[in-house]
Amino acid sequence: MALFDMDLDQLRAYRSASEEPADFDSFWARTLEETRAHALDARFEPVDTGLSKVDVADVTFAGFGGHPVKGWLLLPAGTKEPLPVVVQYLGYGGGRGPAHKHLLWPAAGCATFVMDTRGQGAGWDGGDTPDPVGSGSSFPGFMTKGIEDPEDYYYRRLFTDGVRAVEAARSHPLVDAERTAVGGNSQGGGITLAVAGLVDDLAAAMPNVPFLCDFPRATTLTDRAPYREIGSYLSTYRGRTHRVRETLAYFDGVHFAARGRAPALFSTALEDQTCPPSTVFAAFNAYGSGTADGAVDKEIEVYDFNGHEGGGPYQEAVQLRWLPGRLAA
Description:
Elements: H1 8-13, H2 24-36, E1 43-47, E2 54-62, E3 68-76, E4 83-89, H3 104-107, E5 111-115, H4 154-170, E6 175-185, H5 187-198, E7 204-208, H6 215-221, H7 227-236, H8 241-248, H9 253-258, E8 264-269, H10 277-286, E9 298-303, H11 313-327
Parallel strand pairs: 4-5, 4-6, 6-7, 7-8, 8-9
Antiparallel strand pairs: 1-2, 2-3, 3-5
Helix pairs in contact: 4-5, 6-7
């Protein structure tokens, strides 16, 4: 697919038309307060994975509603002093999978905490975290579960799990809480932005080709899944568009990005029809704009002839060069 979105100069100037709800901050403050009424109860059980250079723990912690959420914690073998940690969030449809798939940051001398994604895991890597909350009618997938009410929407639970994952990672004695970074690809990038907007003392955020940004444009620009799930739902439930858009505004990465304070490294790809580049630039251009002076440390890598794979290992190499300066003790 050749270039289909705005040209690069337009992308760098683009601003989303997504309207922020007046009670956005109070909605999320209340959501987190209700969740924190449940004990975090983070448990780390050592497991033998056959990896001789990495120590692995099977993690369970209490996420949204006190529901148990699984994860992995990986540390360079024999770690004795607290290390910086990268909390990783996963792409749409996947679960935490086997621990040995997450060796990049331990190999770089960091801890990594991998959050499983509730209810997902059958699309590619398996998951171990059920979502015990039901919903009304929805199109197959996760984008429309509870979509007619922000209180019930699936991503209210998942973004809250993302915040609790940071808290769980920081509770481990071999993690340096002051040097916490978050990152992920696609859906994981969307969760990264949400957490960066909700946790104000992160050291860094690394959203790659982030999903869940600029819903008004994304849902009308691309017919690729997962955004298309919303259009398919509305093609059946005619007349509910306004209600759905009101819900989605509470979960738009653009509004979380405006609250981001941590140094941020984004990526986008100009042929990406799954997460169109204008939707990524909408979040990037908004990032930090809600802070006192609007000045934050942010960069974006642009892959001009790539689709949703984005930079892949090339972006990982950029991260390996960029992150140490933000994690310096």
